[in-house]
Amino acid sequence: MKETLNYLIGFDNETVESHQMAVRAAVVFFIALAYVRTGGLRMLGRQSAFDSLTALMLGAILGKAVISPDSFLGTLLAAFVIMILHRLMAWLTFKSSWIGSILKGKSILLYHNDRPVFENLSRVHITENDLREAVRKSLNVEEMGYVKEIYMDRSGELSIIKK
Questions:
Q1: Alpha carbon separation from 135 to 58, 107, 141, 160, 162 (Å, rounded)
Q2: How confident is the model at residue 137 (pLDDT cuts 50, 70, 90)?
């Protein structure tokens, strides 16, 4: 049994053969599905930097599991640890808004009282033209007079509140 698994997956090899990469890819695919379910569906929706970082790390680690002769099981374990940490951080940010603001950031007010908030625009590198474009896309109007406030949300998207 051990010899068959070693032939299929290449546990003890210094190099990984093509057929072993294919088998590893299939195994990693199903394990990644389980990991994403462990991490929660939020990782696949509109992502905060926190979610994007987790997805990026997970992809890099699992990619290594497919093509690298390094420890296959160790690499899968490392990916599992990342998913557990993601789930733990998501729970902590749910329980504590203070921790949430540290890990995920805060929404930033960019437009208020019919005026751009220039210090915040400068901080996030957004121009007044970017705000007008967002208003056109969101509200289908050209006039800023219809806008009460505009925020940059923690996900990086602009939220527009009508008057």
A1: 35, 17, 7, 7, 10
A2: very high
* Spatial contact of 68 and 16, defined as CB atoms under 8 Å apart: yes
Tell me the CA distances in angstroms from 35 to 59, 100, 134, one per residue in order.
Answer: 11, 22, 35
Which 8-state DSSP code applies to residue 46? S
List the 158-162 sheet strands across, edge first: 115-116, 108-112, 147-152, 158-162
CA 110/CA 116 separation, integer angstroms: 6
How far, in Å, CA of 34 to CA of 36, rounded?
Answer: 6
Res 45: pLDDT:
55
Which tokens in the block code for residue 49?
A: 């930097």
Phi, psi of 94 (to 5 degrees): -70, -40
What is this structure's pTM?
A: 0.68
